[in-house]
């Protein structure tokens, strides 16, 4: 199951969590006090560059006479839509630039180039997702209602084909987001008032008609009126929108569903302190490494951890914030989940593929799986450690017993060898004495012979 006790999972006591919150609050205060002209120049420069790139792309499509100009125009328009969606729309509607008091760059007035009405997105994203980040049953972004991304959701037979839902969601991500806050299934089930749902559907209809009319009627008609191709412009606009959808989908999934981006139970947020909220954001998010170009094209959501802790601070400041957050994670021995785009995307897709299967087909437990973990994983770790220690002690005792037996055998062998040496020595001594005795007898015989010889010589004389 998901994490229920954030502090226990992070191995921090209440005092540690309070100190952690104070250090992160200090980072916020420092950035807020230093916001100024440099940041304003940045966002105004991005707006100008994005609009210029979009205009260049549309003009290139308008005048395209071959597939190369078509591809160049569609590519520029796709990049412009990505920038508008991620670095501008997402971040402006988060209130990151409200401190400038510029009515054009303000969360209450900005409307992005997406089918989803800004007000709908701000409710489902700014309020539900960022307040209840990865809380199963409260954060609608956990699987977006069509994917099983945690074992806390009971497996159903329809999940066996969720790879198709996943593919469709990636291609049409704009429309998935547009329907996200409406929760049509909840209205049908009677859990949401129909008057509210109908109002949202009308607002979505107005916004969607404007978007569809702009990209698939107005601009193709203008192209045809000036001698271009209606169909070529329409397909280029469609390609740009799909490219934006896929890129946005990839970035969002890399920040929320790779290994290490944890999930939480509703119990985890009961009486949640500011420090525990910070911890939940840190544990429930993942970063993408890749450098300045990656940071910009993701709307600085490559710093998803920092964005979730400080969602309303300017996106261009997240890189400097990340340096301080990493140091804090090291200080408190907290995980800091980060990886290249392709790896994070692979891990998120592996989770989706794996959880399309029933739990009985999976090896890891629901408390200690890469995609679903809880504080109980450490109990299992402690149990495995205890078993390993007991096994090691048994092996040590067995080794000591074997060593003692070998020592006893060695001593017995040494004693036997000594006895053998002594026996060999005794036999040698007896043999030597026998040789001495034989020699003595030989000498005695020779002495007798010598005496007889002398007597004979004396008698002759």
TrEMBL record:
Biological-process GO terms, alphabetical:
lipid biosynthetic process
Q: Which residues form the Fatty acid desaturase domain?
A: 70-338
- Coiled-coil annotation: which residues? 382-453
One cellular component term from this protein's GO annotations in UniProt: membrane
Alphabetized GO MF terms: oxidoreductase activity, acting on paired donors, with oxidation of a pair of donors resulting in the reduction of molecular oxygen to two molecules of water
Key words, A-Z: Coiled coil
Q: Which InterPro entries match?
A: FA_desaturase_dom, Fatty_acid_desaturase
Q: What is this protein called?
A: Acyl-CoA desaturase
Q: Which organism is it from?
A: Tsukamurella conjunctivitidis
**What lineage is this protein's organism placed in?**
Bacteria, Bacillati, Actinomycetota, Actinomycetes, Mycobacteriales
């Amino acid at each position: 199951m998901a994490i229920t006790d954030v502090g226990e999972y992070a191995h921090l006591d209440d005092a540690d969590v309070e100190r952690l919150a104070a250090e992160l609050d200090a980072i916020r205060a420092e950035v807020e006090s230093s916001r100024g002209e440099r940041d304003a120049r940045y966002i105004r420069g991005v707006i100008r560059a994005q609009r210029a790139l979009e205009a260049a792309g549309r003009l290139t499509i308008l005048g395209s006479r071959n597939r190369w100009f078509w591809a160049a125009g569609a590519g520029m328009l796709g990049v412009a839509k990505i920038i508008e969606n991620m670095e501008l729309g997402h971040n402006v509607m988060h209130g990151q630039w409200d401190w400038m008091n510029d009515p054009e760059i303000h969360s209450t007035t900005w409307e992005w180039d997406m089918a989803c009405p800004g007000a709908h997105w701000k409710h489902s994203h700014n309020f539900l997702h960022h307040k209840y980040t990865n809380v199963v049953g409260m954060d609608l972004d956990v699987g977006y209602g069509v994917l099983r991304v945690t074992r806390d959701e009971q497996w159903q037979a329809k999940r066996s084909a969720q790879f198709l839902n996943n593919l469709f969601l990636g291609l049409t991500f704009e429309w998935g987001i547009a329907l996200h806050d409406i929760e049509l299934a909840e209205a049908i089930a009677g859990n949401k008032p129909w008057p509210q749902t109908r109002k949202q559907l009308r607002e979505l209809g107005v916004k969607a008609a404007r978007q569809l009319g702009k990209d698939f009627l107005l601009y193709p008609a203008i192209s045809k009126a000036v001698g271009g191709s209606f169909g070529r412009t329409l397909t280029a606009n469609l390609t740009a929108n799909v490219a934006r959808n896929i890129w946005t989908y990839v970035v969002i999934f890399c920040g929320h569903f790779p290994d290490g981006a944890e999930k939480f139970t509703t119990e985890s947020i009961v009486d949640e302190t500011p420090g525990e909220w910070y911890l939940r954001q840190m544990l429930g998010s993942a970063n993408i490494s890749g450098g300045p170009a990656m940071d910009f094209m993701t709307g600085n959501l490559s710093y998803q951890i920092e964005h979730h802790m400080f969602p309303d601070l300017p996106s261009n400041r997240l890189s400097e914030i990340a340096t301080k957050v990493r140091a804090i994670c090291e200080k408190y021995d907290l995980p800091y989940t980060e990886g290249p785009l392709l790896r994070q995307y692979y891990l998120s897709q592996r989770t989706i593929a794996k959880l399309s299967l029933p739990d009985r087909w999976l090896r890891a437990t629901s408390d200690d799986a890469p995609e679903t973990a809880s504080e109980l994983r450490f109990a299992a770790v402690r149990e495995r450690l205890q078993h390993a220690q007991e096994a090691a002690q048994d092996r040590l005792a067995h080794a000591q017993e074997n060593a003692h037996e070998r020592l006893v055998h060695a001593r017995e062998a040494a004693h036997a060898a000594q006895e053998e040496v002594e026996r060999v020595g005794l036999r040698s001594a007896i043999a030597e004495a026998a040789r001495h005795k034989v020699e003595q007898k030989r000498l005695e015989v020779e002495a007798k012979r010598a005496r007889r010889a002398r007597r004979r010589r004396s008698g002759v004389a």
